[in-house]
Amino acid sequence: MTKVYFVRHAQPEHDWKEDRIRPLTEEGKKDSAIVLEFFKDKKIDAFYCSPYKRSIDTIAEAAAFFGKEIITDERLREREKGLDGNNHGMFQKRWADHEYHEESGESIATVQRRNMEALNEILSDNTDKEIVIGTHGTALSTILNFYDNSFGCEDFLRIIDWMPYIIELDFEGDKLVGKHEHCHVKKEFKCKQRADKK
Q1: H or E segment at 172?
Q2: What pTM was computed for the model?
């Protein structure tokens, strides 16, 4: 059996303009300690990650503990946000129609295709090993939806405030045979619509 531990990143600086290099907040850096703590007694063979700074930084201490290089893969990156793409109304539209996207943004289907392509290669290269993949909320949700098409907007919103969040998927070959949620830290995800509720 191949075990894949997906680690959604810790709390980032939401106001940071450039998505790719958005850093973790000071709280996010501290919260990343639960990632190392969780993996300490595991036998991790490899670390893969989105190339985005917040994801790399969340798993960096754990990778260093095992003396492993973090292998980044562009396909594992987060959804490309377009104009006005980060509010609850848009979340619902995208999950209702996986091909829908705002101007210059990516659809759920597009994100799912590239993330699954990367995951299938990782599974093929790491049979019967234990793998960590550093990921994002939407990217991870598209993978979970691939294996369970009932996973939708409400499920995405359930985990939106979990930063970091660790979930394990177990595979025999490329077939999913088990799923286990392990731990998370609740931190508010900030988006435009939530500001209206204050």
Answers
A1: strand 162-172
A2: 0.93
